[in-house]
Amino acid sequence: MDSPDQHLFSVDVPRSTARRALPWAVLAVVVGFVVYKAARNPHFGWSDVGSYLFNGKILEGLMGTLELTVVSAVISLLLGALIVGIGRMGGVGRAIAGTYVWIFRAVPLMVQLVLWFNVALIVPRLSIPLPGGGHIFDESTNNLVSAFTAAILGLALHESAYVAEILRGGLLAVPAGQYRAAAAMGMTAPQAYRYVIGPEVIRVTVPALTNQLIGLLKATATVAFIGGADLLTKATQIYEQNFKTIPLLLVATIWYVVLVAAATLVQHALERRFSTAPGTPKTPAKVTETTELDTIPALQEQRL
């Protein structure tokens, strides 16, 4: 027989409207006070913030930040998937993948950026020699690895280690029975990953991957340390000339908030798109003979 204590915390206790509204009212007062004090503070230089918000250099830096984010995200996703594939080979492959993830997660992003920016001190020239003499390719490393290139290398390699772990966790979240069921239905490995394993991995990893993307977007600000043509770099270049440090930093802050807000909306949209349907149990989907699976060649052959 159930004890009354078992249902103690599941009882829906009515709360008055005043009690529900009180925390929101307090929060509104605090936020309003902070906004009022900030608006009245002349040291923020709000007029300068407005004049520089759509400045040409700032917009150029904004596009640079977006480019850094998108390119680094694509490369890190591809590298992460490759590392997971190598790790699933077992033996030496697992050791290689584990070492890669360990190194690029252990070294701070700022250190990686500085190392790539100064890679010419280690390898002055990059060349591909011919057996009979001469070179197919020979170029100074300084000409090849600009600040922007160093930023891409640092961000992509650093993020790929985290992406690899997210994807590996997604694969581990798929029950072993799904693999056996796919094999029992005559699916090849590519078919199994396309129709059974892949959708499960996507559903599990989308929240973590999109959150990692937002983190990458903010991490592009570290590129300012090597002058990588990002938003913060452009803002820094302007205030080093006119000494309007706070207004320019506020301009950069506003744009970062806008970018992260947009990325968060995309994150929520993707989560809704790949989440399970409302009202369905939050358990891994089982392999069933559905209309979609009827299109798989292996299943069509079995039914002939």
UniProtKB/TrEMBL annotation:
It is found in: Cell membrane; Membrane. InterPro entries: ArtM/GltK/GlnP/TcyL/YhdX-like (IPR043429), MetI-like (IPR000515), MetI-like_sf (IPR035906). One of its GO terms (biological process) is amino acid transport. SUPFAM superfamilies: MetI-like. The keyword Transmembrane applies. The keyword Transmembrane applies. The chain crosses the membrane at residues 21-39, 68-87, 99-123, 246-266. This is Putative amino acid ABC transporter permease protein. One of its GO terms (cellular component) is plasma membrane. Belongs to the binding-protein-dependent transport system permease family. Keywords: Amino-acid transport, Membrane, Transmembrane, Transmembrane helix, Transport.
